[in-house]
Specification:
Largest sheet: 3 strands, antiparallel
Number of strands: 8
Oligomer: single chain
Helix content: over 70%
Order of helices and strands: HHHHHEHHEEHHHEEHHHHHHEEHE
Structural class: mainly alpha
Distance between the termini: 77 Å
Length: 588
C-alpha cells in the first residue's frame, strides 16, 4: 500500500469516528428528551430548544462529515485508480520482461539442442563450450532485461519531469503575459501623455510665432523674404570677394619675386626704433642758477632768446630748465650755449653772444661729422660739400619721431639690397635713396614740398638726372619713370612703414592689432587670440566643446567680415580658427 493510500485511510477512519461520536450524542439527547417533564415547563421548553439546536448542529456536522467522506472516497478512488494504472503498467512491464525471458530461454534451448546434435563426436568439450555459451547468453539476456526495466523507470521519471517543466512554463507564460499587459498599459499612458505634450508644444510654437510677428512687425513670409534677400546680398558680396581674392592671387604670383626681395631687404637691415624728441632739457647744478639765468629784471633770458631764437622755459621743475624751438638745429645750439654758460658761471648779454657763436660752430662741426659718417656707412664718396652740410643738418631733424638722417641711411641700405637682388646699378640706387629727403633740411626756410626742394638742390649741385627724378618722384609729385625712382619709393615705404619706425605709425599699428584681437575675442567660444605676422594673420583658439567644425568656419567668416567693415589696413588679413581636442592620460 502506498503512502497516499495510507493517508487517505487514516483520514477516513478519523471522519468515521467523528460521525459515530455525533450519532451517539444525538441518541443520548433523544432519550433525554423522551424522559423529560411535561411540555408546560419553561425550562423543559428551553432545554428542548437547545437540544433541537444541538441536534441540528449535529446533523449539519454529520452532513459535512458525509460530504468530506465522499470527497475522501473520491480522492481514494482516484488514488486507487492511479495506483491500479501504475500496477497495470508495472505488470505489463513484468509480463514483457517474462516474455522476453521466455523467448530467450526458448532460443537458448534451441541453440543447446542444435549444439548437442552437432557436437556428439566431441561430446565433453562441446558440451562444456555450449554450457558456457548458454550461460553468457542468459547473462546478456538478464542484463538486457534489467536495462529495459531501468529504461522504463527512466521514461516514467522523464515524463514526470516534463510535466513539471510544462507546469512551470505555463506559470512563466502567465507571468509574462501579466507583465506585457502592464507594459502595454504603461505605453498607452505614455503615448497619451506624448500626444498631449505635442499638442501643447504646437500651441506654444504657434503662440511664439505670433508673438515674434507682433514684435517684429513682419509676417513669417515677409521675414523669410528679407532673410533670402540678405542671404543673396551676402552671397553676392562673398562672390565679389572671391573674385577679388582670385585676382589678388594672380597678382601675387606675378609679384612674388618682388615681395621676396623686399622682405629680404627688410630682414637684413636692423634699425632702432624712434624716440620722441619735442623739447630739450638742461639739468642745472642748483635752483639758484635759475635766478642768474633770468638776470636782473629778466635781461639775461631776453638776451638769450633774442640771440639763439630758442624759447627758454623756467618752471617749478627742480634743477632743470626746458628749451623749445621748432628748428632742431637752433634748439641744439641753444642747449649747448646755455650749458656752457652754466659751466662758466658768467651770464650776461655780451657773454651770451660769444658763447652762442662758439656753440654754433661746434654744432656745425657735429653736423658735418655726422654727415661724413653717414656717407661712409652708405659708401658714397663723391658729393658736393653743400649737400654734405645740408645732410648734417638732418642729424637733428625728425619726421613723426624718426630721425631723418638715420632714415636716409636705412633707406639706402634697403635700396642697395633690393638693387643687388635685381642685378641693377647698386651705387646709383643707393645714392637716390640716400638723397631722397635732402629737401627736409630747408623745409623751415623754403616753402614747398620737400621732394621738389630736394630735387632742385640735387640738380643745382650737379647730381645726375636719375637721382633728381628719383628724389622728385618719391612722393608721386612727379610720376615715377625709372626703376631707380620705383625702388626709392619702395625702400622709403619699407623704412618709414615698418613697426616702430615712426611714432604715429607705431601707435596706429598697435591700436589696429588690439582692435583685431578684441574683435576675435568678443565671439562666443573663443579661448585665445593671437595677432601674428605684423597683423597679417589672426589665429583664434576656440573651445572644442563650445564650437564645432561648422561653427569654426562660421566664426572665421564672421571675424573676417567684421575686420573688413571696421578697420582700414593695407593688403589682406588671414583669419585662422584652430579647434583642437586633446585627451591626456598619465602612465604610472
Amino acid at each position: 500500500m502506498s503512502g497516499v493510500e495510507v493517508v487517505l485511510f487514516v483520514a477516513v477512519l478519523l471522519l468515521a469516528l467523528v460521525v459515530v461520536g455525533a450519532v451517539l450524542f444525538g441518541v443520548r439527547a433523544l432519550r433525554g428528551f423522551r424522559a423529560a417533564p411535561a411540555p408546560e415547563d419553561p425550562a423543559f421548553i428551553a432545554e428542548k430548544d437547545r437540544q433541537e439546536q444541538s441536534l441540528a448542529a449535529l446533523r449539519s456536522a454529520a452532513d459535512q462529515a458525509n460530504s468530506t467522506i465522499d470527497v475522501a472516497k473520491s480522492a481514494a478512488a482516484a488514488a486507487r485508480t492511479e495506483a491500479a494504472a501504475a500496477k497495470a503498467e508495472a505488470k505489463s512491464a513484468r509480463a514483457e520482461a517474462r516474455r522476453v525471458l521466455d523467448d530467450a530461454r526458448a532460443e537458448a534451448d534451441t541453440i543447446l539442442e542444435r549444439a548437442h546434435r552437432q557436437a556428439e563426436a566431441d561430446a565433453e568439450q562441446l558440451r562444456t563450450a555450449a554450457r558456457r555459451s548458454g550461460e553468457r547468453e542468459v547473462a546478456v539476456l538478464a542484463a538486457t532485461t534489467r536495462e529495459q526495466a531501468a529504461e522504463v523507470e527512466r521514461r516514467a521519471a522523464r515524463m514526470d519531469e516534463r510535466e513539471r517543466l510544462h507546469t512551470e512554463e505555463v506559470e512563466r507564460l502567465a507571468e509574462r503575459e501579466r507583465q506585457l499587459t502592464a507594459a502595454s498599459a504603461e505605453l498607452a499612458r505614455r503615448e497619451a501623455g506624448l500626444v498631449e505634450r505635442e499638442t501643447e508644444l504646437a500651441a506654444a510654437e504657434e503662440q511664439r510665432r505670433r508673438e515674434l510677428e507682433r514684435v517684429a512687425g513682419l509676417t513669417a513670409d515677409a521675414a523669410r523674404a528679407e532673410l533670402i534677400e540678405a542671404i543673396e546680398t551676402q552671397a553676392k558680396r562673398e562672390a565679389a570677394l572671391l573674385v577679388r581674392d582670385i585676382e589678388s592671387d594672380a597678382r601675387n604670383t606675378a609679384e612674388q619675386r618682388a615681395r621676396h626681395i623686399v622682405v629680404d631687404a627688410i630682414q637684413r637691415v636692423a634699425s632702432e626704433q624712434t624716440a620722441e624728441s619735442v623739447v630739450s632739457v638742461l639739468h642745472l647744478p642748483g635752483d639758484e642758477m635759475k635766478g642768474r639765468i633770468i638776470g636782473r629784471e629778466g635781461r639775461n633770458i631776453r638776451a638769450f632768446e633774442s640771440v639763439t631764437g630758442v624759447n627758454l622755459i623756467i618752471d617749478d621743475t627742480p634743477e632743470a630748465v626746458l628749451l623749445s624751438c621748432f628748428d632742431p638745429v637752433r634748439r641744439e645750439v641753444g642747449r649747448l650755449t646755455l650749458e656752457k654758460l652754466v659751466l662758466d658761471g658768467r651770464i650776461h648779454p655780451h657773454r651770451i653772444e660769444e658763447v652762442h657763436d662758439l656753440a654754433r660752430q661746434e654744432v656745425e662741426e657735429l653736423c658735418h661729422r655726422a654727415a661724413e659718417d653717414a656717407l661712409v656707412e652708405v659708401g658714397i664718396t663723391e658729393i658736393h660739400p653743400e649737400l654734405v652740410t645740408l645732410l648734417g643738418r638732418l642729424r637733428y631733424r625728425t619726421s613723426y619721431g624718426q630721425n631723418v638722417l638715420k632714415h636716409l641711411v636705412e633707406t639706402a641700405h634697403i635700396a642697395g639690397i633690393m638693387a643687388a637682388e635685381l642685378r641693377l646699378d647698386i651705387p646709383t640706387i643707393k645714392r637716390c635713396a640716400f638723397l631722397h629727403d635732402i629737401g627736409k633740411a630747408l623745409t623751415h626756410e623754403v616753402e614747398g614740398s620737400h621732394a621738389i626742394i630736394g630735387a632742385d638742390l640735387a640738380r643745382k649741385y650737379g647730381e645726375s638726372e636719375d637721382v633728381v627724378h628719383a628724389i622728385e618722384a618719391h612722393h608721386n609729385e612727379v610720376p615715377p619713370q625709372t626703376i631707380e625712382a620705383v625702388l626709392t619709393q619702395a625702400s622709403d615705404a619699407c623704412s618709414g612703414g615698418r613697426p616702430g619706425a615712426r611714432r604715429e605709425s607705431l601707435e596706429a599699428y598697435v591700436k589696429r592689432l588690439e582692435r583685431i584681437e578684441e574683435i576675435a575675442a568678443g565671439k562666443i567660444g573663443v579661448e585665445k587670440v593671437f595677432a601674428m605676422q605684423a597683423g597679417r594673420e589672426v589665429r583664434v583658439m576656440v573651445k572644442p566643446e563650445d564650437v564645432d567644425d561648422i561653427g569654426a568656419a562660421v566664426l572665421a567668416r564672421d571675424v573676417a567680415k567684421q575686420i573688413e567693415e571696421e578697420l582700414t589696413y593695407p593688403g589682406q588679413i588671414r583669419v585662422t580658427v584652430v579647434r583642437e581636442s586633446r585627451v591626456t592620460e598619465i602612465a604610472r
